[in-house]
Design goal:
single chain; 382 residues; 4-stranded antiparallel sheet; 1 helix; globular
Length: 382
C-alpha cells in the first residue's frame, strides 16, 4: 500500500482502488495508477508513459511520443521532418496531443508547460508555465490558445505576445475546483471545459466569464473531452455514464444519462446522428445522439480510454488489448483488427484512407483504412 497517495493495490491483475479526493472506484487499468503516481509525486521504478494522440494538419502528422519528444512526420511514408527538442534532450511525459493553429504547434507537458513551436521547423517560439502538470490537449481559435492544467485553471494565451519573463502572454484564466484533464471545446464565441470536480463549465471565449447560471454537474470526475453536435454537448464521466447537455442552458438533453460498465474516459465521436464512445469496460457503444438509446455495442479485449476516429461508414477504435479495430458504423460488425504490439491508450487519426495510431511502446503505426495492411511504422526515441 502506498499510503501517502491514497492508492491501494487490490489484486495481482493490476486492479487498483483509487480513492484520491472524492473518487472511489475499483478498476482494472494500470495506466490510471501510473498517471496518479506521476501527478501525486508518489514515485515508482518505471518511468511514466504518455498517451498523446497523432494529429493531422495540412501535409504533416504530428506526434507527441511516449518518449517525451514531438515529431513532425510525412503521413505518406513516416519520414521525419523535424523533432522537438532537436537535440538528445526530452520533454517530460506527454499526454496532451500536439495541435496546430496558424503558424504554431501547441503541446502541453507534465513539466507544467505549454510549448509553442514553429510549425515549419519545430523551433520553440515561447512557452507558458502553469502551476502543475498539463494533461489536457489545448484548443485554438482566432489567435488564442486555451489549455487546462492540473493546477485547476484554464488559461487563455496569446502565442504572439510575451510577458516580462519572456513567456507567452496570458489573456485571462478561469479557476475550476479541481484538475482539468479534458481538452476545451470551442463553439462559436463560447468555450466549454470539463473538470475532475464533476462540472462542465460554459465560458465566454473572450473573457472567461461563465455563461450558464451554474455549471452542469455530473456524478463523477470528467476527463472525457466534450464534443458538440446540433446544439448538444456530449462527454463521459468516471461515474460510468455518458451525458448529453444542451449547449444553450446546461440542462440535460437526454431523459437520462447512458450507463456503461466502468469509467468513461474516452472522448465521444459523432457522425450522422450516431455517437460512438468507448468505456473501460472494454466495450464500444453506438448511441442515438438525439435520445441516448443504444444502436449497437461491440466488445474488445481490453479497456478503451481514447476517442474513436472515423467517417460516415466506418469507425476505428484502439484498445488496451493492443489492437486497433475497424467497425461498420451502421451495425458494429467488425471489418478488421490490427495488432500494434502494445496497449493503445491514444486515439487513432484518420486521413486520406490511412489510420495512424501510437502504441504504448514508442511506435507509430500507419495502416490502410480499408484493408488494414501496414503502410509504414516509425519508432520514436525511448
Amino acid at each position: 500500500m502506498i499510503s501517502d497517495c491514497g492508492i491501494k493495490q487490490s489484486s495481482l491483475k493490476n486492479e487498483f482502488e483509487i480513492f484520491c479526493g472524492d473518487i472511489l472506484k475499483v478498476i482494472g487499468s494500470i495506466f490510471i495508477f501510473g498517471i496518479l503516481l506521476l501527478l501525486t509525486a508518489c514515485g515508482g521504478t518505471a518511468p511514466p508513459t504518455g498517451w498523446s494522440r497523432p494529429v493531422f494538419a495540412a501535409d504533416t502528422v504530428y506526434v507527441g511520443s511516449t518518449g517525451g519528444k514531438v515529431y513532425a512526420l510525412d503521413p505518406a511514408n513516416g519520414n521525419k521532418k523535424w523533432t522537438f527538442p532537436a537535440d538528445n534532450s526530452k520533454l517530460a511525459t506527454l499526454y496532451s496531443a500536439p495541435i496546430v493553429g496558424g503558424q504554431f504547434v501547441f503541446i502541453g507537458s507534465s513539466d507544467k508547460k505549454l510549448y509553442v513551436l514553429n510549425v515549419s521547423n519545430g523551433e520553440k517560439q515561447c512557452d507558458f508555465e502553469t502551476g502543475d502538470a498539463i494533461i489536457a490537449t489545448p484548443a485554438y481559435a482566432n489567435g488564442v490558445v486555451y489549455v487546462g492544467s492540473s493546477d485547476d485553471n484554464l488559461y487563455a494565451i496569446d502565442p504572439t505576445q510575451k510577458n516580462d519573463k519572456g513567456q507567452c502572454a496570458l489573456k485571462w484564466q478561469f479557476k475550476a475546483q479541481n484538475k482539468i484533464w479534458a481538452e476545451p471545446l470551442i463553439v462559436g464565441d463560447q468555450l466549454y471545459v470539463a473538470s475532475l470536480d464533476h462540472h462542465l463549465y460554459a465560458l465566454k471565449r473572450d473573457t472567461g466569464q461563465p455563461v450558464w447560471d451554474k455549471p452542469f454537474e455530473a456524478g463523477g470526475a470528467i476527463a472525457s473531452s466534450p464534443k458538440f453536435s446540433d446544439g448538444v454537448i456530449y462527454f463521459g464521466s468516471f461515474d460510468t455514464k455518458v451525458y448529453a447537455v444542451n449547449a444553450a442552458d446546461g440542462k440535460l438533453a437526454w431523459a437520462q444519462p447512458f450507463e456503461t460498465g466502468n469509467w468513461v474516459w474516452a472522448d465521444p465521436f459523432i457522425s450522422n446522428g450516431t455517437l460512438i464512445i468507448g468505456s473501460l469496460d472494454a466495450n464500444v457503444y453506438a448511441l442515438d445522439a438525439k435520445t441516448g438509446k443504444t444502436k449497437w455495442t461491440k466488445a474488445t479485449g481490453g479497456g478503451i480510454r481514447a476517442a474513436a476516429a472515423g467517417n460516415e461508414s466506418f469507425v476505428y477504435v484502439g484498445s488496451e488489448d493492443g489492437n486497433v479495430y475497424a467497425f461498420n458504423m451502421s451495425d458494429g460488425s467488425e471489418v478488421w483488427h490490427y495488432n500494434v504490439g502494445d496497449k493503445v491508450l491514444a486515439a487513432p487519426a484518420l486521413l486520406n484512407g490511412i489510420v495512424i495510431v501510437q502504441n504504448n511502446n514508442h511506435k507509430v503505426h500507419a495502416v490502410d483504412a480499408a484493408s488494414s495492411k501496414k503502410k509504414w511504422e516509425f519508432e520514436t526515441d525511448k
